[in-house]
Amino acid sequence: MLKQLFTPNARPKTSVFYAMVAGQVLVLLLLWLFYPLQLFPTLGEVGKAFRDLVTTQGLIQELWASLTTALAALGIATVLALALSYLTALPFFRPLAYAASKMRYLTLTGLTFFMALMLSSGHQVKLSVLIFGATVYLVTGMTSVILTTTQEEMDHARTLGLNEWQCFWEVVVLGKLDDMLEVVRQNFAIIWTMITLVETLYQSEGGIGLLLYKQNRYLHLAGVVAIQIVILLTGALQDFVFEYLRRLFFPYAALKAAK
Most exposed among 186, 192, 196, 219, judged by the fewest C-beta atoms under 10 Å? Predict the structure, then answer.
């Protein structure tokens, strides 16, 4: 049983795998509890900071504010990215998608200035920055998925009597939906990376990014670690939800994985 955990490409039982993960987490917690790093807050200090953040500083409310903003940005960005990616089927629009994918190299610091001039409220600026940042990364991933479409897949659709638009709908749009959802799942982390910066610049609506900034500013290291753990666990939960939805709506996607 233990041999499977050290064998390449092995697939141990689910119970064995989860027991291994629980054991690894327990070892890390024990090391943190009994052998803390000198400059790193102890497990007890982080626990006290977390309790204080929840009871007196509104950690749950700030997390909810950030989460709703992140989900709104992801929803809009996904629709925009899908539209730009699918338009690459038409040669006229391919330069537009190519340019959008290269805009991921732009820095947010310069973008926030121009968006602040164009938009009227801090919320609109914050949401627009997040949408832009997520869209350019989503377009990059989604166009890569579309490019994996093989000539054999298109020829097979044509032999069924489908015209080019029908082939595109069946093979690219419907046939790649599970991969598109995976791209969205992978790039959701981009929004969480940006939201702390954006909430620091526009503080009127609060958010977990602003709370993290305050803890960092006053050198409350235990609070910083506590908030980072909350963000990490929230992201892990989101990954699990996206993976569950993918298995639920696209059960055939598991057939693509190596056994």
Answer: 219
